[in-house]
Amino acid sequence: MNKSIFYHAGCPVCISAEQEIVNLIGANNVEVVHLGEKRQHIEAAETAGVKSVPALVTPTGNVLHINYGASMADVKG
Amino acid sequence: MNKSIFYHAGCPVCISAEQEIVNLIGANNVEVVHLGEKRQHIEAAETAGVKSVPALVTPTGNVLHINYGASMADVKG
After folding, report:
1. Cβ–Cβ gap A20/B65 under 8 Å
2. With contact defined as beta carbons under 8 Å apart, do A63 and A49 qualify?
3. Whether pLDDT at B68 is above 60
4. How much is the pLDDT for A70?
């Protein structure tokens, strides 16, 4: 199975969601990308359809927006 | 591991999210509850902290609201 990608921006709700997702899916099945630290990934995230973080992009390309932490506009600052 | 509970209300975004979640977590690890068909579960869902569906209540009791499909008020009708 291809990996899912979990995008977040370091906010508390993101970290909480990250821990849950990693526990549920398994650390080997998900790549975690901190958009605040890796800003070069923002364009790829937006292209994948990420509207807010935290979000999980599944291997099938669907985007599951989890909670509502910060808009992509906020991540860009 | 205790099961997660995935609450939804039959809307298209719910069904899509359900399939993703079941694929990612594994069907044996998640109980799916259709609140539109099992309205007696609405109170338990609200008590668990579900504010909108679809939502995943994890074994640790955290609620991950996924996308934003329908508010609990909409589910109650």
Report:
1. no
2. yes
3. no
4. 54
- Domain locations along chain B: 4-76
Does A64 sit within 8 Å of B67, measured CB to CB?
yes
Q: What is the third-level CATH fold of A4-76?
A: Glutaredoxin (3.40.30)
Cis bond upstream, residue B12 (ω within 30): no
Query: What pLDDT, on a 0 to 100 scale, did the predictor assign at position B20?
Result: 87
Distance (Å, whole) CA B18 – CA B65: 12
Question: What is the complex's ipTM, to 2 decimals?
Answer: 0.72
In the prediction, which pLDDT does A33 show?
A: 95
A45 touching B (Cβ < 8 Å): no
| B4–A24 CB contact, under 8 Å | yes
